[in-house]
Amino acid sequence: MSKLTVTPRTVFQTFLDFPLVEDLDRLSADVAIIGMPYGTPYTIDETINDQTNAPTAVRRASQRISLGLDRYDFDIGGTLFEGQDVKVVDVGDVPGQASGSTGHYARAEAAIRKIRAAGALPITIGGDHGIPIPIFRALDGEGPITLVQIDAHLDWRDNVNGVKEGYSSPIRRASEMAHIEAIFQLGIRGQGSARMEEVEAARAYGSNIITAGQWQEIGTAALLERIPDGGRYYLTIDADGLDPAVMPAVEGPSPGGVTYRQTIDLIKGLFAKGEVVGVDIVEIAPARDINEITSMTAGNIILNVIGAAVRAGQFKRQN
Amino acid sequence: MSKLTVTPRTVFQTFLDFPLVEDLDRLSADVAIIGMPYGTPYTIDETINDQTNAPTAVRRASQRISLGLDRYDFDIGGTLFEGQDVKVVDVGDVPGQASGSTGHYARAEAAIRKIRAAGALPITIGGDHGIPIPIFRALDGEGPITLVQIDAHLDWRDNVNGVKEGYSSPIRRASEMAHIEAIFQLGIRGQGSARMEEVEAARAYGSNIITAGQWQEIGTAALLERIPDGGRYYLTIDADGLDPAVMPAVEGPSPGGVTYRQTIDLIKGLFAKGEVVGVDIVEIAPARDINEITSMTAGNIILNVIGAAVRAGQFKRQN
Amino acid sequence: MSKLTVTPRTVFQTFLDFPLVEDLDRLSADVAIIGMPYGTPYTIDETINDQTNAPTAVRRASQRISLGLDRYDFDIGGTLFEGQDVKVVDVGDVPGQASGSTGHYARAEAAIRKIRAAGALPITIGGDHGIPIPIFRALDGEGPITLVQIDAHLDWRDNVNGVKEGYSSPIRRASEMAHIEAIFQLGIRGQGSARMEEVEAARAYGSNIITAGQWQEIGTAALLERIPDGGRYYLTIDADGLDPAVMPAVEGPSPGGVTYRQTIDLIKGLFAKGEVVGVDIVEIAPARDINEITSMTAGNIILNVIGAAVRAGQFKRQN
Amino acid sequence: MSKLTVTPRTVFQTFLDFPLVEDLDRLSADVAIIGMPYGTPYTIDETINDQTNAPTAVRRASQRISLGLDRYDFDIGGTLFEGQDVKVVDVGDVPGQASGSTGHYARAEAAIRKIRAAGALPITIGGDHGIPIPIFRALDGEGPITLVQIDAHLDWRDNVNGVKEGYSSPIRRASEMAHIEAIFQLGIRGQGSARMEEVEAARAYGSNIITAGQWQEIGTAALLERIPDGGRYYLTIDADGLDPAVMPAVEGPSPGGVTYRQTIDLIKGLFAKGEVVGVDIVEIAPARDINEITSMTAGNIILNVIGAAVRAGQFKRQN
Amino acid sequence: MSKLTVTPRTVFQTFLDFPLVEDLDRLSADVAIIGMPYGTPYTIDETINDQTNAPTAVRRASQRISLGLDRYDFDIGGTLFEGQDVKVVDVGDVPGQASGSTGHYARAEAAIRKIRAAGALPITIGGDHGIPIPIFRALDGEGPITLVQIDAHLDWRDNVNGVKEGYSSPIRRASEMAHIEAIFQLGIRGQGSARMEEVEAARAYGSNIITAGQWQEIGTAALLERIPDGGRYYLTIDADGLDPAVMPAVEGPSPGGVTYRQTIDLIKGLFAKGEVVGVDIVEIAPARDINEITSMTAGNIILNVIGAAVRAGQFKRQN
Amino acid sequence: MSKLTVTPRTVFQTFLDFPLVEDLDRLSADVAIIGMPYGTPYTIDETINDQTNAPTAVRRASQRISLGLDRYDFDIGGTLFEGQDVKVVDVGDVPGQASGSTGHYARAEAAIRKIRAAGALPITIGGDHGIPIPIFRALDGEGPITLVQIDAHLDWRDNVNGVKEGYSSPIRRASEMAHIEAIFQLGIRGQGSARMEEVEAARAYGSNIITAGQWQEIGTAALLERIPDGGRYYLTIDADGLDPAVMPAVEGPSPGGVTYRQTIDLIKGLFAKGEVVGVDIVEIAPARDINEITSMTAGNIILNVIGAAVRAGQFKRQN
C-alpha cells in the first residue's frame, strides 16, 4: 500500500500512441504522422487560426477511436497491421516562429523530403489548405504524380492580395509543378474563392472536376475508373470536402458533401491502383466541433489510409 | 501613415451584402429578400421566440457562404447571375410592435403585394410557420397557384386555442384560399400537431402528401413528375423538413428527413416547370445551431432559388 | 381572477406522459418503459457515467416528439395505438446504491421477470451496454430467442480486468445462455474493444455479423431476409450503432453508421416476423448531445417499436 | 423488491418547497411568495425578456440554499421561523396573455390586494423593474409608506416613447402616489436612463439619494439612521443594485455596488423600524448567471426578509 | 533543421511541476501535496462527484499561477523558498476502486501517516469535505491539535442516512477524537446541513464559531488573538467558506463570505503561532468554475501555506 | 406603410458611439480613443492572442454602459461633459500586418504623437501590456512624466528570449526613458514574470511599489499623498490589477486585487494633481469574460477618466 495511483497522469499524446521520433535524420519507419499547424496568412489575424489547433485535437481524439493495435477494425477488415511488421511513428509538428517569417514552409518541405528519403509515407495533419504547397514541392523527385483532392472548393487562386501560397491556392501551385501530372478534384460544390477565371484556368489545365452531386450519382467505383491505374498518387483532403454532418468543424461548411464511406472507399481504391506518396487532411477547426466528431473522423480516415497501405502491400514493396 | 485601419467596422448586414431598399413604393428589383420575425403566438411566451432571430442569423451567416457575385457556384453551375442583368435587394424586416397586436400580418401582406407589384420574386426568411399566411393572402390576384411545402409536419390545424393564424395552421389556411389550386406536402414524417381529423381534412381536400420515406424511395425526378407543369408555384420550406444532420437548429428535429440535394433538385425542378411566385424558409431556431450550419444551409438554399430563377429565365420574362 | 397561473409547474416526467406504475407486482400493461441507469463499472470513475443520465434525458426529450396519443405519426402510418386498447406505462428506474455493490443487476433481472410475467413488452432505456445482461437472464424461460443487435461494436469480450458483466461483454454473455439461439450483429464498423480473439469467438459461435457498409449495400429488405421468420426476438440498440449525424451523443461516435430509416424499417421487419420479447436502447451520453437530437431520436425509435408492435397485433395476442 | 425507485421524479417547484396556494381568495398565510414575469415592454422584442425567467430560476435555485425549515441559518441567527407558528406559501405567477395587452398589471395589483387583505407579507420575484408599479398601487390603503430602493439606477423617467409603466419609471410613478410618503434610493451609481431632468425631478420631490460610494463610506448603521423609525416600509431591490460580483446576472451590471452584507443588514434594520408591507426583487437575468449565484443570492435575501420579519415579531402582530 | 518541435507535448502535471514521488515509503520531503478525489457517498450518484475532479483541476491551474521557483511572490514577500533548501513533492492521488468499498479512506489514512512519519507537511486537495476524516485519524499521535476550519457550514452531523463519514460530518468526527483539543469554525454563514441539534452539539463541545459577519467586523488580527499560541494546528478549508466572488466553483455558494486576504492573513498567523501539521482544501467543483479562478485561488492559497511555513522556519525545525 | 423597419441594422461601433475620425492629420478633439490590438509576441502562437479582441469587445460593451451623453453619471457626479464643449472621438485601431513585422509599434508611436500634437488626451485600449511601450516613446517631448501603473505584476523584465518589447517589459522600458521621472506600481501581488533580479532592478531604480494589501490597508487618499502633485502623469491599467471579481477576463487572474472604487478614486486624484497625458487599459481577454463585465468595467473606467478630465478643467487648459 505504499504506492498511490497517479490518476491524472497524461503522457505525451502522439497519434494513437505511436512512438515519437524527433530526429528526422535517423527516421526509420513506414508511416510518419506529421503536424503542420501554420499556413501562410492573408492577414495578421490569420497567423494563428483555429486550424492551427488541429494537429493537437486530432492526436487527442485518436485516443477515443482505438484501444490498441490488436483491435479488429471492421472498416478495414482486420487489425491495422494485419500481422505485418509495420512501423508507424509520430514526428511532431513543424514549428513556426514569432518573427512571423514563413520559414515554416521551408522546414515543412525539408521534413517531407527526409520522410520520403527514409522511405516512409507522410500523413500530414494541417493547418489550413496552404500547408500542402511545401509538401508538393518536396515530392519533385517522385513524379509523375496524380494529385487527388477531396474538397468543397477549387483552391485555384493565383494569389490573394499578392500572397501566393495561402489556403486558396494549393491546387494552382500544384498545377505549375512539372512533377504533378494530373489533378482530380472531387466533391466540389457551392461557392469558394473561385471566380470564373479560376474555373477556366482549371479547365484549361485539364483538371478533372467531379462535383459532390456527380460523385453521388455515379458512385465511387465509377469515379475510381476515371483515375488512371498504375501511377503514383498524392491525396489531399480538405475537411470541408466531407459533409458537415460528418465533419462539422470547418470554417466553410457546405451541405451536400462527400460521405465517410465514399472517402474510405476512394482511399482503398487509390492504394489498389499504385503507390500513394503522401496524404494530408487539412482545415479542421476544432473550436467548432461537437463531441470531437470531426477530429475522430479524421483519425478514422488516417487509420483507413494506413490499413489500405498495409493491405496494398505498399510497405512490403519498400521494406 | 496618417490613417488607422478600423478593424472592427461592421456595416449593415443585408443578405449577401445585397443593397438595402427601405422604400417598397420605389422598389425596382428582380428578387426581394424580406425578413418576417414575428408570427401569431399561442401564448405570451411565444411572442418572441427563437425563430424571431432567424432573419438576422441567416443574413449574418450569408457572409460565410459567398465571397461575392463573381464566384462560381458548383451547386448552381456558374456564377449566381450567369452574366445576366439581375437585381437582388434586401428590404429589411416587417416590424412588430410592443402593443402586441398582430398588425405585422397586415404589414407583411402589404409588403408582399408591393414586391409582387414591382414584378419581383419575394424570398422570405421567417419567423415561425405562421408567417406565410399573410404571404399567401397577398398572392390572391396571381392564382391558380400550386403550393409546394417541404416540412416534417402537416400544419393543417384549423386553430389552436382559438388562434387561427399560428404556426400549426398555414396549410389549412392556404387550402381555404380560392387562388391556391393544389397542395404538395413533401418530407412529412413523425408526429406534429396533426390529429386524425387533420389528416382526414388534408385528404378530403386532395392534398398530395409524400412522406420523407416515399421521397427517398422514388427519387426527386419521379416526385417532380407528380407535380403538374406549366403552373405558378409557391414554395414554403420549414427547416425541420430537412434532416437534422443538415438543419439541426429547429424546435422539432425529426430524424429521417429530406437532404440538401433533394431540396435543391426540387427547387431547380419547380423553376423548370413554370413561374415561382414566392419562396419562404421558416422555423430556424438559431440558438440551437452548431457552427451556423442551419443558417448557412438556408443561405445556400436561397442562392439556389436565385440561381435556378436566373437559369429558368424567370427574370427575363419579367424585365 | 382569484387564481394565478402556475407557469413553472412541472409534473413527474414519464416517457411521453404515460402513467407511472411503481408496484411491479400489480402491473397490468402491454408495454413497460423502464430505466436502468447503472451498469457494472470497470473503474470507480465509471460508477456514474454520462449514460446514467440517459433515462431522464430521453423521458424529458419525449415531450418534444409527441403532443399526445391522438397525433398521427407518418413514420408509423397512423396514431400510435391505431384505435386499439393498448396500455403503456412507465415503471421508473432500477435503483443503485451508495455501497457500490452491483445489486442493481439482480433488481433489474427481477423487474424484467415481473414485466414479462405480466405479459408486457419491456422497453429499457440504459445506462451503458452492460445493462442488457440481466435482461437476457430474465428471459431464460422464453427461448429460443434470436438476439438482434444494432451497434458499431462487437461487445464480445469475456472480461475486462476480471469484470465480466461490463459494457464490453453483453453479446459474449448472451452467447453463453442456452435460451439465446442465434445472434445478428448489425452495423458493425471501425474499432471497439474486440481483438482478433473476440472476432474469432464470435465467428466460432456462428454470430451473423453484417457491417454498416454491407447493410448499406444490400438494403434492409435483404438483411431482414437473412433473419429467420417465426421466432422470438430481442432487440438491443447501442446508440453508437446509428450514425453520429443521427445520434451524436455517444462515447464512441463512429462515422459511416446506420440511418434512422434503416433502424425503423428493421424494427417493423422484426415485428412482422414474430414476437419481440424486449427492446433496449443504451449508451446515450446526454452531455454530448446537441439540441437533444440523440434523445429525441431514441424516443422516436421507441415510438416506432410501440407502433410496430400494435400493427403486428402483438398486444392482441397477449390480451 | 417489487417497487422501483423513480429517480427522475420532479415535483412542482415552489420557493423552498413551501406549499402552493392557487386560490388567493382563500389565502391564509403570513408570507406569500409571488412571481411576476411580465413588465410593460418598450418594444415587441422586450415582451418576453430574460427577466421573465427569473421567478422560475429563483424557485429552482432555492433548493440549493436550504435543506429544510429545521436548519440553522447563521445569517439570521437561528432557524427560519425560530419556533414560531409562521406560514409561508407560494402563490405562483401572475399570468400574461398572447394578446399582448398588459392586463397582467391589473391582475398583479388584484393579487397584491388579496395578499394584503389576508394579512400576508407579499414577496415578489420579477420580472423587470416595471412590475412594482401595480404593487405600489395595490398598497394605496396602507399609507403613508416609505419606499426604500436598492438599485444602481434612479428609474425616474416619466415615460419612454410614451410608455409610462416600463422598467425605467417605477420610482417616478411611486412619487406620484399619495400614499408614498418618502423615498430612499440606495446604491445609486454609474449611468442609467436618468438625464439631468430626472435627477432634478427626484431632487425636487425630495428623494433621498445615497450613492453606492456614500453607503460604503458612512456604513449601514448610519444609513439606517437617516430613515425615520416607526413607519411602514416597502423595499424594492433591483438585482443590479448589488455588486456584479454578488449578482452577475443582470442586464446592466455596474461595478462598485452594494454588498450582500449591506443588503441583509438594511433588511434587518427596516424590520426593526416598523412594519414592512412588501418586498420585491427584480431584474434578474438568469441566462447571464454563473453557477446560479444570482438566483441563490436572491433566495438568501428572501430568507433574510422572512427571518427578520419573524424576529421583528411582525407576524405576531398580525396573527 | 532535422528536429521538429513537438508543440503539444504535455508532461505529467504535478502541482507547480514539483517532482512526483510515487513511493511513500521512500519519501523525503518537507511538503507533500496529495490528492484525495473520493469521499464517502450518501447515494450512488455521489460516488463520483464534481469534486472528484478537483485535484486534477488545481494541478492544471497551478501552471497559470507561477512561472517557476525563482519568481518573487508579493503576497508572500519573496520567492517561495526564500533561498532555503526546501523540498516539495507531489505524491499523486489516493486511488478509489470500482467495487465501491470505501477502502480509499484506509489508504488515505495510511498515506498521511507515511507523510507525517517522513516529517513532511501534507497539503491535501479534495474531494468533498468527507476526506479530512481519515486525515484527522492519521494525526492521532500528534495531539493535542487545534483544528481550524474555514467554511460556510458547520459540518457537525452525526450521520446522514446512517453514513457517518460523509461530507456533512467531518467536524463532528474530529470532535470525537481525543487528540483534537479545540475547534475554531470561521466564516460560518447561511444554512447548511446543521439543525438546531447540531448547533447545540457544537456549542456543548465548546466549538468556537465565528461567523463571516463577525470576522469581517473584528478583523483577522483580533480573530487570531482568540486562537491560543504555541500549539499544533490543522487547517481545513472548504472552498465555499470563501466568498463566491473569489471561489465561485462550489456546490453551495453562499454570499457574504471570507476574502482571499483574510484567508492568507489567517494562514500566516497560524504558522506564526506554532507548528501546522496539515492543511486541506476541499469542495472545489471545477465544472462550475469561470476562467479557472477557483482552482487558481486554491493554488495561491497553497503557495501561501508553503511560503508561510518557510518563513516560520517550520522546515528548519524538522530538517 | 411603405417602409419596413430594418431591425438588424448595425452601424460602425465606436466607443460609446463617439464619432469616428480616420485621418489623424486632421484630428481636432479633446480625447482620442484608440485601439492597439497587437503586441510583440514571444512565440508565433501569441501573434494573435485573446487580448487582440479587446478593443472590439470594449467598444461593443460600451453600448451597455451609457444611453447617451445627456445621462447623469453618479460615479462622476453629473453628465459626462458637465455642459462643457468637449469633443471625444474614436480613431480606430492601429493595424498589424500578415508579414508579422512589428511595424505596428512604429505606427502606434506615430499615432500617439499626432494625437498629442492635436492637443488631445489619448485613451488606448490594448492589446497586451507590450503596447504601452511605443506610447511611452511618443511622449518623449512631454517629460518629466510620472508613470502610474495599476497591475498585479511588476512587468520589469529586460527581455524574454531576447524579445525586449513584449508584455513582461513595459515598466523596464519606461524606466530607461529619460522623460519618465518616477514610477508608481500599485496593486502588485502574487507572482508574475519577476524574479529576484527584476525586483532588485525596480528597487534600484526607485520604483514605488505599493502592493494590493498595502493599498487596502492605507486607503486611496493616503496613497495619493505619496504621489507628488503638480506633475504630468501617465496611467497604465493592466486589467489583472483589478480584482478578478471585477475583471475576471484576464490571462492571469490574481485574487485579492484592486477594487473599482479604488481605481476611480485614484483616477480622480491624478487629474486633481496635474495634467494626465495619456491612459491605457490593457490585458483584457474577452473570451474569458462573463456577461461582458470586464469590458463594461473597462468602459466605466474610461468614462471616469473623461469625466475627471472634464471636471479638472484639463480640456479648458488646452482649448
How would you describe what is shown here?
6 copies of one chain form a homohexamer. In chain A, helix 8 (260-273) packs parallel to helix 9 (293-311). The first copy, chain A, has helices at residues 54-62, 103-117, 132-138, 170-175, 196-205, 212-218, 220-226, 260-273, 293-311, 314-318, and strands at residues 31-36, 71-73, 78-79, 88-93, 121-126, 145-150, 180-188, 191-195, 208-211, 232-238, 275-282. Chain A has an 8-stranded parallel sheet, sandwiched between helices. The first copy, chain A, has one domain (15-318): Ureohydrolase domain (Arginase, Chain A), CATH 3.40.800.10. By secondary structure, the first copy, chain A, is α/β, with parallel strands linked by helices. Chain A starts with 30 loop residues before the first strand and ends with a helix. Chain A is 31% helix and 19% strand. Chains in contact: A-B, A-C, A-E, A-F, B-C, B-D, B-F, C-D, C-E, D-E, D-F, E-F. The interface between A and E is medium-sized, with 34 and 34 residues.
Annotated CATH homologous superfamily of chain A? Ureohydrolase domain
Number of helices of chain A: 10
- Overall tally of structural domains of chain A: 1
- How far the N terminus sits from the C terminus of chain A, by CA atoms, comes to 48 Å
User: Class of chain A, according to the CATH hierarchy?
Assistant: Alpha Beta
Name the CATH architecture of chain A: 3-Layer(aba) Sandwich
User: Fraction of residues of chain A in helices?
Assistant: 25-40%
Summarize the largest interface: chains and residue counts.
A-E, 34 and 34 residues
Instruction: Name the average pLDDT of chain A.
Output: 93
In terms of quaternary structure, the protein is: homohexamer
- Derived structural class of chain A: alpha/beta
